[in-house]
Automatic annotation (TrEMBL):
The keyword Zinc does not apply. It holds the Pfam family FAD_binding_3. Residues 14-190, 346-413 form the FAD-binding domain. It comes from Lentinus brumalis. The chain crosses the membrane at residues 12-34. The keyword Cytoplasm does not apply. This is FAD/NAD(P)-binding domain-containing protein. Keywords: FAD, Flavoprotein, Membrane, Oxidoreductase, Transmembrane, Transmembrane helix. One of its GO terms (biological process) is secondary metabolite biosynthetic process.
Length: 507
C-alpha cells in the first residue's frame, strides 16, 4: 500500500477475528471514539463470504440501549424495533416478558410479567447488523472468506507480534488481536493451546481438554436444543386474530414439562414479533434432563421436521396448538455454553462476545453482553494513550471489569431457563394438575406459580438495577490510574496482576 505522508503512522496494527455483533460493535466504538491524531490500523477477518448473520430474532434490553445512545445509534436502531402501541415515552415501565404455564389443553395461566423501561424491544438480527455496518469507520478493512485456523506468538525486535494463519493458506501479522469469532473461536483455541503449553504446571494434565483450568475453554452442551422457525403474522392472524404472540410488543414464554417413563423433558416456547410485526419468531426449547455436559451427537445446527416440533408441544394450550399449525422449514440448534472461562486475555490478544461467555438465550443477553465488551474494549483501545507498550495492561483491566460480569450473566440466564421449565430447586416443580382437580388445588398451583414468577422477575432486575454507566466509570478510573504518577505501579497494574494470579493460578 502506498505511504500517504499526510496520514500519521498507525499506533498499532489490530486484527479483529470475526464479523458478528461483537466484532462490528467493536469497530463502531473505535470509530466513534477514535482520535484523528493517532489512528489504529484495523483489519477485520470474517470466515464467511460476506458480513451477515444467522438466526432471525434478537431482543435488545435496557443496558444495550444505553450503549446505543452513547454510540449515536439509538434512533436508528430503535426505528428497527417492534414498538409498543404506546406513545408515552421511554421512561415508564412497560411489560417486556410474559411467562405462562401452557402445558395443559385449557387456556394458559400467566404467572410472571417482567417490566422494563422500554418494554421488550425485538427486531431481526439482519436489521441490527445493517445498522452497525452503516456506522463502520472507513479505515476498518473488511476481509471476507478469511477463516482463521489459529495464531502464533512471534518475537520481533523484543516485542511480541502475532502471525495469523487462515484456511486459504494466507497469513497476516498483527500487534493486537481481538477474537470475536463466536462460541467455536479459533482465537480462544490458540490462546489456550499456548497458555497450556507455556504456562500450565498441572502435572497430571497433559491434554488441554483434561487440564483443570484449560478444559473450561471447550464449550459445553447444556442438554438443550431449540427449534426455530418464522411464522408469517398474516397466517397466524387468519387462524386466531387475537393471538397474543401477534399483538404483544413483548416476549412470551409458554412453559411446561413432560414426564415420560424413562426421560423427563423440560420445555418452553419463546415467541416475539420481528421485522416490524411481519413475522413471529418461534423458538421452542427442549431440555433433556441429565444430558448437560454430554457430547451433542449431531451437528450443532440442522434442519428439523414439522412432526418433530409438533410432537414436543402437543396437548398444550390452544395458542400453542395454533402456532404449531404454522411450522415451516424448522431448524434445530444445540445450545452450548462457556460458563467458567478462567481468562480472556493473553499478551496483546483478547477475546470478546460469545468467544468468552456464550450463554443460553433465556434472558436474550448474549448479544448485549458482546456489545458491552465492545464498548469498554473499544473505548480503551481508541484512547491515544493506549500505546502498544500499554496494550497488555489495558487488556487486563478489560478482563478484570468484563470477564466475571459476563460469566455472571451466563449464570443468570441458566437460572431463568431452569425456573421457566419448572426445574429450579425449591420453586414450583410443574407437578401435573389433573383435569378433574378441585378449585383449591388449582389455587395452590397458582400460588406456587406466583412465587416462581417473582423469582424470575427478580433475576431479570439486573437489567435496570445494575447500570452499564457504573461499569464504564469503574473501567475508566482503573484506566486513568495507569497515568496518575503516585499510583502508577501500585494501583491498576498491581490490581491487574493480583487478579491474574487469583483467577488463574496457571498463568
Ligand atoms: C436461539 C438463540 C437466541 C438468541 N437470542 C438472543 C437475544 O434475543 N438477544 C441477545 O442479545 N442475544 C441472543 N442470542 C445470543 C447472540 O446470538 C450471541 O450472543 C451473539 O450473536 C454473539 O455475537 P458474537 O459476535 O460474539 O458471535 P457470533 O454471532 O457467533 O459471530 C461470530 C462471527 O465470527 C465468524 N467466525 C467464526 N469463526 C471464525 C474464524 N475461525 N475465522 C474468522 N471468522 C470466524 C462467524 O462467521 C461470525 O460471523 C441468542 C442465541 C441463540 C442461539
Ligand atoms: C481512521 O483514519 C482517520 C484519518 O486518519 C482518523 O481520523 C481516525 O482516527 C481513524 N480511525 C481509527 C479507528 O483509527
Ligand atoms: C393502538 O392504540 C390506538 C390508540 O390508542 C388504538 O386505537 C389501537 O386499537 C391500538 N392498537 C393495538 C394493536 O392495540
Ligand atoms: C434445509 O432446509 C432448507 C430449506 O428448508 C433447504 O434449502 C436446505 O437444503 C436443507 N438442508 C439440508 C442439509 O437438508
Amino acid at each position: 500500500m502506498a505511504d500517504d505522508s499526510s496520514t500519521p503512522t498507525p499506533r498499532f496494527r489490530m486484527a479483529i477475528i470475526g464479523g458478528g455483533i461483537a466484532a462490528l460493535s467493536l469497530a463502531v466504538t473505535l470509530g466513534r471514539y477514535a482520535d484523528g491524531s493517532s489512528p489504529i490500523q484495523i483489519d477485520m477477518y470474517e470466515a464467511g463470504p460476506e458480513i451477515t448473520t444467522v438466526g432471525a430474532g434478537i431482543s435488545v434490553w435496557p443496558r444495550t440501549w444505553v450503549i446505543m445512545r452513547e454510540l449515536g445509534l439509538y434512533e436508528e436502531l430503535a426505528s428497527e424495533a417492534v414498538k409498543a402501541n404506546d406513545s408515552s415515552g421511554g421512561e415508564h415501565l412497560k411489560p417486556a416478558f410474559f411467562y405462562r404455564k401452557s402445558d395443559w389443553p385449557q387456556e394458559g395461566f400467566e404467572y410472571a410479567r417482567v417490566m422494563m423501561p422500554n418494554g421488550g424491544t425485538t427486531m431481526h438480527r439482519a436489521e441490527m447488523v445493517g445498522v452497525l455496518l452503516r456506522h463502520l469507520p472507513t479505515n476498518c478493512s473488511i476481509h471476507t472468506s478469511k477463516k482463521l485456523l489459529g495464531y502464533e506468538e512471534v518475537s520481533e525486535d523484543g516485542r511480541t507480534t502475532y502471525m495469523l494463519h487462515f484456511a486459504d493458506g494466507t497469513t497476516a501479522v498483527a500487534d493486537v488481536v481481538i477474537g470475536a469469532d463466536g462460541i467455536k473461536s479459533k482465537t480462544r483455541a490458540s490462546m489456550y493451546d499456548l497458555a497450556h503449553k507455556v504456562d500450565c504446571s498441572d502435572p497430571e494434565a497433559t491434554k488441554r481438554e483434561e487440564c483443570r483450568q484449560c478444559r473450561h475453554a471447550t464449550p459445553k452442551w447444556t442438554g438443550i436444543v431449540t427449534y426455530r422457525y418464522l411464522i408469517p403474522s398474516d397466517r397466524l392472524r387468519e387462524i386466531n386474530p387475537t393471538h397474543r404472540a401477534l399483538d404483544t410488543p413483548a416476549l412470551l414464554s409458554y412453559s411446561g414439562k413432560h414426564k415420560f417413563v424413562e426421560q423427563i423433558l423440560l420445555q418452553h416456547i419463546v415467541t416475539y414479533p420481528i421485522s416490524h410485526g411481519k413475522f413471529v419468531n418461534f423458538v421452542g426449547f427442549v431440555t433433556q434432563e441429565g444430558a448437560e455436559g454430554a457430547t451433542y451427537p449431531h451437528k450443532w445446527v440442522i434442519n428439523a421436521t414439522r412432526e418433530e416440533v409438533v410432537s414436543h408441544y402437543s396437548g398444550w394450550e390452544p395458542e400453542v396448538e395454533q402456532m404449531l399449525r404454522c411450522v415451516e422449514n424448522p431448524t434445530v440448534w444445540a445450545i452450548h455454553v462457556l460458563d467458567s472461562l478462567p481468562f480472556s486475555v493473553r499478551g496483546q490478544v483478547a477475546l470478546m462476545g460469545d468467544a468468552v461467555h456464550a450463554m443460553t438465550p433465556h434472558i436474550g443477553s448474549g448479544g448485549g453482553q458482546a456489545i458491552e465488551d465492545a464498548f469498554i474494549l473499544g473505548r480503551f483501545l481508541a484512547d491515544p494513550r493506549t500505546t502498544l507498550a500499554r496494550v497488555e495492561v489495558v487488556l487486563r483491566i478489560y478482563q478484570d471489569i468484563r470477564l466475571q460480569f459476563g460469566l455472571g450473566v451466563v449464570q443468570r440466564s441458566d437460572k431463568v431457563g431452569r425456573m421457566c421449565e419448572f426445574d429450579y430447586p425449591g420453586l414450583y416443580d410443574g407437578a401435573p394438575v389433573p383435569a378433574s382437580c378441585k378449585e383449591d388445588e388449582l389455587d395452590l398451583t397458582k400460588e406456587r406459580l406466583g412465587e416462581l414468577g417473582r423469582a424470575i422477575e427478580d433475576v431479570w432486575s439486573w437489567q435496570v438495577k445494575e447500570h452499564v454507566e457504573d461499569q464504564w466509570d469503574e473501567a475508566k478510573s482503573r484506566y486513568e490510574a495507569l497515568f496518575s504518577e503516585k499510583q502508577r505501579d501500585t494501583s491498576a497494574v498491581g490490581k491487574a496482576k493480583n487478579y491474574w494470579s487469583r483467577v488463574c493460578p496457571i498463568m
